[in-house]
Amino acid sequence: MTQRSFDQFFKNPRTWKEDLVAVGGDFSVERLLYAYQHGIFPWSEDPVRWYCLDPRAIFDLKRVHFSKTVQRKVKQKKFRISFNEAFSIVMQGCSYREKDNTWITPGFIEGYAELHRLGWAHSVEVWNAENVLVGGVYGVAIGKFFAGESMFSFESDAGKVGLFHLFEKLNQSQFELFDTQQLNHVTWQLGAYEIPKLSYLDRLERALGDAHPWIIPTSPG
């Protein structure tokens, strides 16, 4: 589809008053990139529902509140941290639920894996001493904007340790905006907060810049 076709498919979040801005479509790279650059994200697969929430939850990249326990585990190097080694497996870890249904269905994994292959989506992997994946985070990076999609922990604090290292790399790269979509208990404890949708869209526009892929720094933070 062309830019004009996407303009017609999605309601304009700046003028549309509801959170739901489109129903249908697919998880193609072109559609996903258009959506994220306009403050829109998918939240279901059958059918695909696209949202731009008001208010919107974000993190201040320099004011994330990690507990002393998490910081201690980081200093002790309790886990091995990697980036982009097991993207699809991280998504599968994020999709695991003991009771509730997950929104991270196979179509999401396939679509975002293609985003990852092309350099637009990234994962952080957290491995224990037995080299078993026990935590992770993934999201989409465009310009100086990062959309945090989901996090999981199979060992205590493993996902938060991964998030700590993600924020470290984002700050190295001078990112300007971290979107976490909506508040929950975990993100609230970490320091996320809400801003009006229009303020979010203004900040997003500035953070996107020339909308280049993120090259993750290899040097220590």
TrEMBL record:
The keyword Flavoprotein does not apply. It catalyses: L-phenylalanyl-tRNA(Phe) + an N-terminal L-alpha-aminoacyl-[protein] = an N-terminal L-phenylalanyl-L-alpha-aminoacyl-[protein] + tRNA(Phe); N-terminal L-lysyl-[protein] + L-leucyl-tRNA(Leu) = N-terminal L-leucyl-L-lysyl-[protein] + tRNA(Leu) + H(+); N-terminal L-arginyl-[protein] + L-leucyl-tRNA(Leu) = N-terminal L-leucyl-L-arginyl-[protein] + tRNA(Leu) + H(+). GO terms for molecular function: leucyl-tRNA--protein transferase activity. It is found in: Cytoplasm. The keyword Acyltransferase applies. InterPro entries: Acyl_CoA_acyltransferase, Leu/Phe-tRNA_Trfase, Leu/Phe-tRNA_Trfase_C, Leu/Phe-tRNA_Trfase_N. GO terms for biological process: protein catabolic process. Gene3D superfamilies: Leucyl/phenylalanyl-tRNA-protein transferase, C-terminal domain, Leucyl/phenylalanyl-tRNA-protein transferase, N-terminal domain. Its main location: cytoplasm. It holds the Pfam family Leu_Phe_trans. GO terms for cellular component: cytoplasm. Keywords: Acyltransferase, Cytoplasm, Transferase. Its EC number is 2.3.2.6. PANTHER family: LEUCYL/PHENYLALANYL-TRNA--PROTEIN TRANSFERASE, LEUCYL_PHENYLALANYL-TRNA--PROTEIN TRANSFERASE. Belongs to the L/F-transferase family. Functions in the N-end rule pathway of protein degradation where it conjugates Leu, Phe and, less efficiently, Met from aminoacyl-tRNAs to the N-termini of proteins containing an N-terminal arginine or lysine. This is Leucyl/phenylalanyl-tRNA--protein transferase. The lineage of its organism: Bacteria, Pseudomonadati, Spirochaetota, Spirochaetia, Leptospirales.
